[in-house]
Specification:
The protein is an alpha/beta fold. Helix content is 38%, strand content 20%. Strands 2-1-3-4-5 form a 5-stranded parallel beta sheet, with helices on both faces.
Length: 138
């Protein structure tokens, strides 16, 4: 079972993603956070395998939360899930230690495939073709 923590400042995004993941075989949503500042406490409490992390959040960005989380829980895999297509953000996410980067504009199968790939240790990055929106690099 892949344990997923969802971090996004938009309640409807969290709800929609949680409903989608809850219906998927082998995936369990173990928590949700509305901001990157909540990630450390939540990850300690629920021990996710994968954190689905937005980048742009009001109090603590997903990039800062990624750095902080990986400094204390280095085996957690972080999949950036964002509307930001800025190459600088993609590069910074990789530098921060994220395991992948997926655009929110993709379909539900792309999200499921990316969560499973990242959980299996396979990085997922835009620009490479593996049949999902977001691609895989590695």
């Amino acid at each position: 079972m892949i344990r997923v923590l969802i971090v996004d400042d938009h309640p409807f995004v969290r709800l929609g993603v949680a409903l989608l993941l809850a219906q998927a075989e082998g995936i369990a949503v173990v928590g949700e956070c509305a901001d990157g500042s909540e990630v450390l406490g939540a990850a300690t409490a629920v021990r996710p395998d994968v954190v689905l992390m937005d980048i742009n959040m009001p109090q603590c960005s997903g990039l800062d939360a990624t750095r902080a989380l990986l400094s204390t829980r280095p085996t957690t895999r972080i999949l950036m899930f964002t509307a930001s297509t800025t190459s600088g953000n993609i590069e910074e996410a990789a530098s921060a230690g994220a395991a992948g980067y997926l655009f929110k504009g993709g379909d539900e199968q792309a999200l499921l495939t990316a969560v499973r790939a990242v959980a299996d240790g396979k990085p997922v990055w835009p620009g490479d073709a593996i049949g999902i929106s977001g691609g895989q690099r590695g």
